[in-house]
Every structure is written in structure tokens, then in C-alpha cells.
Request: fold
Amino acid sequence: MEKIELSRLVQLHPERVSHVSSTDYPGHWPGEDHTWDLEVFRHNLRLDIQRLTPSTIDFDLIGVDASIANALRRILIAEVETIAIEKVFVWQNTSVMQDEVLAARLGLVPLRIHPGRLETWQPEATATDANTISFQLQVSCTRRPNVSSAETDPSKLYENSTVYSSHMIWQPVGQQGHLPDWVSDPPAVAAPDIVLLKLRPGQEVHAELHCVKACGREHAKWSPVATATYRLMPHIDIVSPVPERLQQKFVESFSPGVIGRRKGQGGKGMEVYVKDARRDTVSRNVFMHPEFEGVVKLGRVRDHFLFSVESAGQIPPQALLPEAIAVFRRKIKVVSSALEELIHPTAAAEEGEKEAADGEEREDGGMDVDL
Amino acid sequence: MANNPPPDDGSLRYVPDGPKISVLPGHTPDYSHATFCIEEEDHTLGNALRWMIMKKCVLFPASWLRGKGPNEGYSPKVEFCGYSMPHPSEYKINLRIQMYDNHSSLTALQQALRQLDDLAATIEEKYNASLEGEQWEQGQDGEMTLEGAKRFAQEAGRKKEREAMEL
Reply:
């Protein structure tokens, strides 16, 4: 197993944890410089994608502080914008599901639409082709002719006994139907087989669904992930050999696949070794057995984050982190330029401030300090 | 500061009190100790910014200071940095910065923002490199059918047997 400096480890003891907080600040350790240096950071930073599936991505982020990893996780969940159904105009609904229940349900259907195609919805905006996408849901249930009277399966007895997300049909508005991007890859639901509601003969549902762009902070239906999490890399250090008669028990004290057995050094007998620490759940079961006291040291690597992100369907998993980073950089830019404005106010802003100052007395004097 | 009234549409949306960033009353005249109020930000930026401000804010690049005499490069320029959200329903943070030696907290904040941006760009760079490297395992999404669940259980059973044999 990779040797990790003790300063990078959160140590796990039978009844407590220690060395939890990061200490990589200037002035914390005598003779150690922890000043921010981009080149040093770049050298130490590692990002390894471990696994990619059509809906999930697992990657290791090594060499950053928890505050950075957490910022990325929070942005993934709450601040990456997507498009979801926001307004449902129900023209007809004779099903057993109430309008409001149906509307809440429709809102949660993930839509596979590139978020860049719409402007972000502003609270007082009117719907236009630049900020709204419209879907039509019009389904009625009828009896199928010539079905055996012994048949009990509703899907065979009736036409449209179940309304699926694939029944939602995109209705191009304004320019939308003429844009090449939209025509070649029309807005659609991320999964066609989501059950929306069930109908019986004579019942019908007819609704217009308006979709807008917003982020998960507003409502979870706009969150592009389900969900984004990280954990710290487990670290297992076997400090003294385990006798052969106890090896089976030792292996079973960890999650399957964590500890392996191999021929010992010098060709005599068997020894245990750490095969794959990543698979450990850090149950600390090994501490329950008195015979293993002092045999093993457990810890977690403080700056080694195992991210696991599942896309809800709107954005492909490999595109999620770049989106999150773009949001993060945009946030920084907004604060940066506001700070710049605070230090060196431009003429236009001064005008505005003067007007504001006329109305009420300002608490804080101007920024006439030499920096 | 008086809170703006909530919007008329009945929603509980937060309306910012002032500009995106402002200095709260009580700062030192040279801005070496100051509390900033940042509107419409939360722990996401607050904690990252706190870390970055504490992390360095040596006003010279570390590479310049290295080897410039005993401990000169190691002395922190930040006495204290912390942030809080005054109330969970108010979407803003207060960021307190106290500098040593009359250094400006405004400069410190400016630098930290720039460095945070560099950091984000570096992470993206590494991510793209890893994506292009194609060293990852390509997996499939599991199908949640009864047959799939049975197959999964069988495979898990076989795997357990294999592992028991190995031991």
C-alpha cells in the first residue's frame, strides 16, 4: 500500500477519531511553508476518473482541501442549472389523480435538453421562446376491441391504460422549430418509461407543460444529480504480522476484497496484505477482537476524496464536473468584479450611489483609502 | 440595515439588502480588519474563500520568499479569517478578515478570489486530461428487473465462493 505521510491522515481509534482538521496553513508548523503556490498545487493535484457508466461517474480528487471538494459537491447538487417543468396548464383531467399531484409529479420528470438552449428564468418574466419550452400531454384511455372476456391485464384490455413520460410531446414555439440544433436533437424526456399516471376507459388527461431553466437551490427537480457524494480514502496500515491461524478472521474483519493473503516474504507461510483499501467501509470491526490489538492502524486520507456522482439524466455524467467548475468560476467572477467596483467605483455606480445616499444616510463612508 | 420586503408574488424568495459585496461598519480605517457582507452566497463560496485566505495571503509569491532569510516566507499575513451565515433564511454571508502588520484585507480578498479561480481552472485541466486519458473502467447501468436482481444475487454468490476458495 502507498505510503502516506502521517500529517495527511485522519486517525481512527476504537472509540474516537483524531487529527481531523487540516493544518496546511502558514504559521501552523514551524519551518513549514504552506503558502498558496499554484505550481505546487498543480504538482500535487491528481484527478483520476475511476469508472464511467451511462449515468454515473466515479473519480478520485487528490490534493485539495475539504472546503474545495465540498464546494464542488454543493454546486453539483444545488447550482448547476437544468431545465424542468415549472408550470402545468391542465385543460382536462378526469383521471383519479388530482391536478396538483399530477403537476408536482410532472415537475420531477428529468428532461434531456441542453441547458444552454434557454435563458435562466427570471421571477417576473413572461414566457417566450427564449426562456420556455412547451410540451403537450394529451392521452385518453379507450377499451380495446375483441379482447377475451377472461382477460384481466389492463394493458391488454385498454388502450393507454398507463401514461408514460414518452407521451409528452415537444411543441416548438416561435424560433424553436427553425433552429438546426433543436431540430436535429429535439427536447425530450431523459427516460421514456416513467409512469406518470394510470387511466381507465373514458378518462383523459390534457395538459400543457411549460419548462424553464433554474437550479437545484430553487427546487430539487432542477438538480442534475441524484446524488453527488464523496468519502475519504480509507487507509489501513498493518503494523505487525498476523499469525496464520488468525488470518481468516482478520480478513473477515474487513469488507470483502480489502485484505488479501499471499506467500510471505522469504517463502515461508502466508501473510496478509492490504489488497484494495478503497473497498473498505471502515466498519472498524477489527478493533472488536482483542487478539488484533496493536496489529493494525486505521485512518482516512484527509485530502483524498472519492467522488461518486450520479446524473439524473439531464446532463451526461462526464459533463457534470466541468459544468460545476464553470459555475464556481462564474461565482468567483461575480464577487471579484463587485469587489473591484467597491474599491474603484465607476462613474455609473457613483451616480447610483449618490441617488441612494440622498434617500437615506449611508452607514459606511466612501472607499477613499490608498491600497 | 432594514430588510427589504418580500416579493409581492407570495413567494419566500430572498431579496438582497445591498450590493453584492459591502464592508460592514466597524472596520479599521486602513481596512486591515474588516467584515465583508457578500449577498447571495453561502457555504459553497464562504468556506472555500476562508480556506484560501488563511492559506496564503503572503503578499509576495511564495517562490520569491523562499530562501529569503529565516522564517520570513513562513510568517502568515492573516491573523484571522472566518465566515458565518447570519441566518439560514437570509441568503448572505459575513466574512471577517483580520490582517497582521496593517496589510489590506481588500487586497487579501482580491488575491484569494484570483487564486481560487486558478485552482478551479487547474482542477478542470486535470479532469479533462483524465477524461482524455481514457484509463477508467467503462461500466453499464444495472437494470432493475427481477431477472437482473436474481442474476446479480447469483453472481455475488459465485464471487463469494471464488474468494473463499482463494483464501
Remarks:
- Residues 359-371 of chain A have pLDDT under 50 and may be disordered.
- Chain A touches chain B through 72 residues (CB under 8 Å).
- The two ends of chain A are 51 Å apart (CA to CA).
- Residues 66 and 104 of chain A are 35 Å apart (CA to CA).
